[in-house]
């Protein structure tokens, strides 16, 4: 029997161990998509206790605590932090087979030096150990990033953001990790949602543009993109229900936009037409600037309306959607491609059944503009577990070129999430090592080193065009 989460955790063959320890473990982390607060980086936040840094905004953990019958008082309520931590420890001991069990213990090992097991009986010991460690300067927000060997990270930022904290970080010569904004224009596109008129007014103010027409909106977006570009932005991101393609005339799109500005209800079909027009406008703009376009879709959000009314979005009440039409995704990419302005694009679906769909669609739009120009994103959200990662990478290998894959991202709000990259790399080395051991790929260590380091780090550096060393 193997020891619990030792140095060869998730590695079952000699080749997998060699690939991980000699190659994957030694390269840095490039976190090209996360939700970390730039303000907390700029201010170098220190956390008072493990509950603050671990449970403060982690809806992954909140879902499991609810599944364990824990009262909301101990999850998002006003219970003391020590009691919240105890309830999480009681939940974790039941999470056999869940990635949170592995992530939590990797974080305890890497950041706190704790090699035991967190459960209801050890909670007091772990609480005291972690809280004492958190008082050290090495556990501030910036130092957590640095000790994780992160070279660059991209936050997630709205077009109306003044990027104040990015400026502070950029001008601080004492912090050498690049922190770049990433453009997330969902609120400008989601005209069917409450508060759209107020948002457009704010956008008008920050862009110094009167937004009375769709053309005005496009002009405002271009101005904000120029500002983001000046701040080093090279990445966009869209959170979509699905990638829609419902083309409409300019007149029809304008009528829909005017109705939204007037506060009229927006029907689902009209929203799809407007969003299609918005995406057909903005995707070529990304290409002109050399930005990468990320498309996240396949999520049905805020399903528990009572809890949404109480807690708001992103609190653990989302699920996988099975309405992810392949024809519309393909038709959208084709429409942009017809303009010769299809940007480098990463496609993520929350529905794992879409792996093969995405794998075949991306093959239709690859060309010599870039190596692996159209990417399937790493297994996302409910799929970033051992099963989901191996399935996604196996599908990509079957249908495309795994060697060009740009690898893992945290997609997290926590400064302790970087061991997820280790988790991913171990699983990736186990998968590749298994193929080698089974005689399905030669044990050419020179080429395997290139593949493993590429997926772990180098491919992403090259793909995004970041100013980083590319031959690690």
From TrEMBL:
Which Pfam families does the record match to this protein?
Answer: UxaC
* Enzyme class of the recorded protein, top EC level: isomerase
List this protein's GO terms for biological process. D-galacturonate catabolic process; D-glucuronate catabolic process
- InterPro entries, from UniProt? Metal_Hydrolase, Uronate_isomerase
Pathway(s) this gene product operates in, as recorded in its UniProt entry? Carbohydrate metabolism; pentose and glucuronate interconversion
Cite the EC number: 5.3.1.12
Q: Which domain of life is it from?
A: Bacteria
| Catalysed reactions, semicolon-separated | aldehydo-D-galacturonate = keto-D-tagaturonate; D-glucuronate = D-fructuronate
| Alphabetical UniProt keywords | Isomerase
User: A Gene Ontology molecular-function term?
Assistant: glucuronate isomerase activity
Q: What NCBIfam families is this protein classified in? A: PRK02925.1
Give the protein family: Belongs to the metallo-dependent hydrolases superfamily. Uronate isomerase family.
Q: Which HAMAP family match?
A: UxaC
Q: What is this protein called?
A: Uronate isomerase
Q: Look up and give the organism this protein is from.
A: Candidatus Blautia avicola
């Amino acid at each position: 029997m193997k020891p619990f989460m030792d140095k060869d955790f998730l590695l079952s063959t000699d080749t997998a161990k060699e690939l991980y320890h000699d190659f994957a473990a030694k390269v840095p982390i490039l976190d090209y998509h996360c939700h970390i607060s730039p303000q907390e980086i700029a201010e170098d936040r220190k956390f008072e206790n493990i509950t603050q840094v671990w449970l403060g905004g982690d809806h992954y953990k909140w879902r499991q605590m609810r599944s364990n019958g824990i009262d909301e008082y101990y999850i998002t309520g006003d219970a003391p932090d020590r009691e919240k931590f105890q309830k999480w420890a009681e939940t974790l001991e039941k999470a056999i087979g869940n990635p949170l069990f592995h992530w939590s213990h990797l974080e305890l090992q890497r950041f706190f030096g704790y090699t035991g097991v967190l459960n209801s009986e050890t909670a007091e010991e772990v609480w005291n150990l972690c809280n004492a460690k958190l008082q050290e300067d090495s556990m501030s927000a910036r130092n957590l990033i640095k000790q994780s060997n992160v070279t660059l990270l991209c936050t997630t930022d709205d077009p109306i953001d003044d990027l104040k904290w990015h400026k502070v970080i950029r001008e601080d010569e004492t912090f050498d990790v690049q922190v770049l904004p990433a453009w997330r224009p969902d609120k400008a596109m989601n005209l069917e949602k409450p508060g759209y008129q107020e948002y457009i007014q704010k956008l008008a103010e920050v862009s110094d543009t009167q937004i009375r027409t769709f053309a005005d909106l496009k002009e405002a977006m271009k101005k904000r993109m120029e500002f983001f570009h000046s701040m080093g932005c090279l990445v966009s991101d869209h959170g979509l229900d699905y990638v829609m393609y419902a083309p409409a005339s300019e007149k029809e799109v304008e009528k829909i936009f005017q109705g939204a500005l007037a506060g009229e209800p927006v029907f689902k079909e009209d929203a799809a037409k407007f969003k299609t027009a918005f995406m057909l406008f903005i995707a070529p703009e990304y290409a002109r600037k050399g930005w990468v376009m990320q498309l996240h879709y396949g999520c049905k959000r805020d399903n528990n309306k009572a809890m949404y009314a109480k807690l708001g979005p992103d609190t653990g009440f989302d699920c996988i959607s099975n309405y992810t039409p392949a024809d519309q995704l393909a038709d959208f990419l084709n429409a942009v491609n017809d303009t010769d302005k299809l940007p480098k694009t990463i496609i993520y679906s929350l529905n794992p059944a879409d792996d093969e769909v995405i794998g075949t669609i991306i093959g239709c739009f690859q060309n010599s503009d870039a190596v692996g120009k159209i990417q399937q994103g790493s297994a996302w959200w409910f799929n970033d577990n051992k099963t989901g990662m191996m399935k996604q990478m196996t599908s990509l290998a079957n249908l495309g070129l795994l060697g060009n894959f740009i690898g893992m991202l945290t997609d997290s709000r926590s400064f302790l999430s970087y061991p997820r990259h280790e988790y991913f790399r171990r699983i990736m080395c186990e998968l590749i090592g298994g193929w080698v051991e089974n005689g399905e790929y030669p044990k050419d260590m020179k080429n395997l080193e290139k593949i493993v380091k590429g997926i772990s780090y180098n491919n992403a550096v090259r793909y995004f065009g970041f100013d980083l060393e590319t031959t690690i």
